[in-house]
Amino acid sequence: MGARTLYDKLWDEHVVRYDDNGTALLYIDRQLVHEVTSPQAFEGLRLAGRKPWRAAANLAVPDHNVPTIERALGIVDPVSRLQVETLDANCAEFGITELRMGDPRQGIVHVIGPEQGFTLPGMTIVCGDSHTATHGALGALAFGIGTSEVEHVLATQCLLQRKSKTMLVELDGPVAPGVSAKDIVLAIIGQIGTAGGTDHVIEFAGEAIRDLTMEGRMTVCNMAIEAGARAGLIAVDQKTIDYVRGRPYAPSEALFEQAAAHWRTLVSDPGAHFDRVVTVSAASIRPQVSWGTSPEMVVPVDARVPDPAAEPDPVKAAGMRLALEYMGLTAGTPITEIRPDKVFIGSCTNGRIEDLRAAAAVAKGRRVAEGIRQALVVPGSGLVKAQAEAEGLDKIFIEAGFEWRDPGCSMCLAMNADRLEPGERCASTSNRNFEGRQGPRGRTHLVSPAMAAAAAVTGHFVDVRGL
Amino acid sequence: MEPFVNFAGIVCPLDRANVDTDAIIPKQFLKSIKRTGFGPNLFDEWRYLDRGEPDQDCRQRPLNPDFVLNDPRYAGASILLARENFGCGSSREHAPWALMGQGFRVLIAPSFADIFFNNCFKNGILPIRLSGDLVDDLFKLAGGPEALRIAVDLVAQTLHLPTGRTIPFEVDAFRRHCLLEGLDDISLTLQHVEAIRAYEARRLAEAPWLFA
Ligand code: SF4
Question: CA of A175 to nearest chain B CA: how many angstroms apart?
Fold first, then answer.
C-alpha cells in the first residue's frame, strides 16, 4: 500500500465490505446517544422487533434538555421532561448504559465521550449530533448522523458510507501568545467558508495544532462541521496517548500498551495525497469575533463590521445584508464598540476545564460590567464542574458576578430554560450564530472563552490580550 | 419508506444561501418523540409572525405575508429551490421530516450540507444538485407571475420544464435504487450478517481493546 492519509487508514480498518457500486458497509465501534435524536430510532427498533447489535458499544446521556439550575426539582417543562424520561426508559429497555441527569458524570455528549475514555483513537464514532466531529481530535473517525442512521447503527453496528475526499488544513507555524484554539478554528472557517469543507474530511495539522492541548484540539475539530466537513481529524501523538491513559473506558496495562503501539501509527504518511490542501497563516491569527448569522461571518476583534457593498458576489452580499439587519449592526462599526447583553461560557466547543480556566483567569479580580444582564458559566460535564470547583474557579466566577451552573448544552441552543430574549445580543463560546439559535431573534457573537470573559467584564468586545 | 414515484410539481423559490436546519425546523419542535407532525412548523420563524411553540394549532397563527411559502402562487409546491449549502448545521432528521410533512419531495440547490443530504434519502426526499447557473435560471423562471411546474423523472434522471427544456441531474446509483424501491437500509444491511460477524472476529483478534 502506498502512502495513506490518517483518514485512509481509519477508513480501511473499518470497511466490512463494498457493494458493487462502491458503497461501503462501515463498522462503527462506538455510538453516543442523547435524548433529542434517539426516541424515533428506539421506536423504530421496537416496531421492527430488533435488538441492539452490541448494546455495550453505546453510551447515552441527556444533555440538550436538562436544566442547569435547581436540578433537584427535576425538569419543569413537561415536553423536555418527557424526552429525557423517554431516553431513560429506552436505555433501560435495550440495556444501554446511560449517565442519567443525577449522575456526577453527566454532561454534554461530546465532553463525556473523551472524558470517560469511551472515545479512543482509531475508532469510528457516531452520534445523532453534528458536533460529533469533536472526537476527531483523538485521531478517531467521528461524524454526526441522522436518526434513521442512529437506528441503523443500533441494529447493525454498521453504516452505509461512501468515502469522503480529504482536505489538509495546515497552520504554517505557531500562533501568537494569547490566541486560542477557538480563534484558530474561527479564522480557518473565515478563510475557507462554511461550505469550504463540503464532501471532505479535514485533517488539521501544523505546529499551531500540535501545540494545542487535547482540549484545544477538541475545540478545533468540534467546529469542522461549521466548515461543512464530514469530520475533523488530528493525528495521534504522545499528548493523545497521555490523555487517554487511565480513563474509565480506556484499556489498561498490557492492553493499553498494545493499543498505544497501534495508535502511534495513526498519522498521515509523508507524501500521502490530499484532494485539497489549504495553508493558513498562523502568525496572522488574532482573537476572533463573529458579526453575522453564519460562522464564516467572522473578523478579528480589531476589525470593523464588513460592508456588503464591498462584496463582489451578489448572493454573498445579499446574505450579508440579511445578517446585518438580523444582528442590528451597521457596516463599518468597530467590533470593539459592540456591547453584548448576555455572556455564555460553555458548550461542547468550549465547556472543558481548560476553557473555564482561561475565562476565570480573565474574570479574576474583576466584575461583570453594568450593561451585562446575565453572564452564565456552564461546565461541559459534572466532572469538569467538580474539577473547576477543586481549583476554586467557581469562586472566581461567582465573585466576579457570573452565574455558576450545572452541566448541559444550555444556552448553546436554548432547548432548556437558558435563552436569549428577542433582540438580545450574546458573547457566546458556542459554535453556531444562526438566527434564533440561542433563542428566537437572539443575536449571537461567537468568541473564545477568554474573549467572552473579557466582554463580560468590560461590557464590550475587546482584545483580551490588552486587558 | 414509500417508493419515490415520478411526478410533476410546483417549484417554491427560497432565495437564500446557507439555510440551516435550525431555520428549517426550530429547536422547540425537536422535543417531540414522534417522526410526524412537523410540517406546519417548517421554517416556523420565517413563516409565522408570532413565536411558535409545540402543540399549537398553526392554522390560527398570523402568517408572514413576505415569506415565500405563504405566497398563494406556490400553494401546494412539492419542489423547493434554494441556494448554496442548504441544510447546514444540526444533524436533526426533523428537518427532512418537516419538509416531507409540508409536501416537499424534491429539493434543488447548488450544494447541500452533508448530513442533511444523507438524511433526505433516508426519508424519500430527492435532493438534486445543479450548477449555480442552472439554479439561477430556475429562480428566474420560478419567480415569474405564473408558478413554475417541473416534471421530475428519477428513472431517467431528468427534470422537464414547461418550456420543453430538459435538465439532466446526477444521483448516486445505490441511493436512486433505494428511493425508487422504497428500500429500508437496515434490512439491506442485515443481509450481510455473516460479513459483519467475520469482521468483528478479525478485529477482536487484531485490536482486542475495541471490544473490552
Ligand atoms: S453544546 Fe450545543 S452544539 Fe454541543 S451538543 Fe449541545 S447543543 Fe449541540
Answer: 28
